[in-house]
Amino acid sequence: MKKFYLLVIILYLMAGCSSKIKKSVKEESKINVIFETDMGNDVDDALALDMLFKYMDEEKINLLGIMTNKESKYSAEFIDIMNTWYGYPEIPIGIVHNGADCENDAVNYAKQVCEMREDNGQLVFERSLSNHQRLPDAHILYRKILSEQPDNSVAIISVGFSTNLARLLETPADDISPLTGKELVSKKVKFLSTMAGCFTNNEFFEYNVVKDISAAKKVFAEWPTPLVTSPFEVGIAIEYPASSIENDFKWAPTHPMVEAYNSYLKMPYNRPTWDLTSVLYAVEGPSYFNVSPTGTIKVTDKGATLFTPDVEGNRYYLMVDSIQQVNIKQHFIDLITKQPVNFNQQ
User: Fold this and answer.
1) Range of the structural domain that residue 91 is part of
2) For 181, which of 2, 80, 171, 252 could close a Cys bridge (C-beta 3.0–4.6 Å)?
């Protein structure tokens, strides 16, 4: 009988160890992500953030932080609403000061959603933070987050201006880390996935680049890890359909991403998926795309992006053919229309 109980104890301990090992392996397989966005300028940022929450639900990523490079009190507040609604209120947010002037470049859907109220005057969407203007500067929050991560473990997804990234590179050693910004990036970041540039027309000056050309120049020239950019011509070839916004979210009485989409332009309209493609590449890899050879990317004084093949380079850009466009579009719809794990009939 003693042998029987001993065997039971051994099997119990083995099962516990096996469970811990499986959990550890699963945790290690997750991709550590920091998301950099000009939330509020174009609604594809909201769709891209939705994707990241769905990847969180699927336990494919750890979303370590969200940085906004749009200087607007509504940008961080909208991100807070999204974090709260999707059930991830603990994700830290960094903001920019003295950033690019872009407040009046488009209908600010972030403002529209932040100001939505019920008939009784109560705000429609909950927040988890109280003072969004007192959030930390993004380049400082980058230092804190990166310093706490394993080496070569973080994917940064940048779908806005390069302002915060350039400032990060320029940061000196401090109490957070004895490393400079460039040293910290080199040690902790695996790659940078951006939405920026255009490689089919040298006379086209893409928005994310031209809003802060000096910062874009610095990042494309000096960023120490591999950099993969999804250019203008990729996202514009794949449109998220208005029919999905109108029909695929009936399970949610009010949905911040859907309300943002409805506020941005007069419905119905399809919208290019520029930012979504950078998220897709960062999380699921290159299988959905064609990828350029290795090379260098130069940003001109006017904001054009010029690619030069170079076997020793570590810059790449994405391309898509007609079949890939269809497959990516359907993948976006399938992923974004999923009901969030933490959804509770808000």
Assistant:
1) 31-336
2) 171
Report the candidate in 231, 216, 139 with the shortest Cα–Cα distance to residue 185: 139
Question: How far apart are alpha carbons 278 and 332 in whole angstroms?
Answer: 12
- pLDDT > 50? residue 22: no
pLDDT digits (tens, 9 = 90+) for 244-287: 999 999 999 999 999 999 999 999 999 999 999 999 999 999 99
Q: How many domains does the chain have?
A: 1
Decide if 285 contacts 165 (C-beta within 8 A).
no
DSSP-derived pairing of the beta strands 154-158 and 189-195: parallel
Question: Which residues lie below 8 Å from residue 31, measured CB to CB, with a gap of 6+?
Answer: 60, 61, 62, 155, 282, 283
* pLDDT for the residue 23: 47
CB 142 within 8 A of CB 36: no
Class of residue 272 by CB neighbours under 10 A (exposed 0-12, middle 13-18, buried 19+): middle
Cite the beta strand spans of 196-270 per DSSP E: 227-230, 239-240
**% of the chain beyond a pLDDT of 70:** 91
Helix 181-188 × helix 138-147 angle, to 10°: 50
7 part of a folded domain:
no
Q: What is the CATH number of the domain that holds 293?
A: 3.90.245.10
Per-residue pLDDT tens digits for 36-73: 999 999 999 999 999 999 999 999 999 999 999 999 98
C-alpha separations of 186 from 125, 161, 168, 191 in Å: 39, 20, 12, 9
- Is 242 among the domain residues? yes
Residue 26 lies in a domain: no
Domain-embedded: residue 12: no
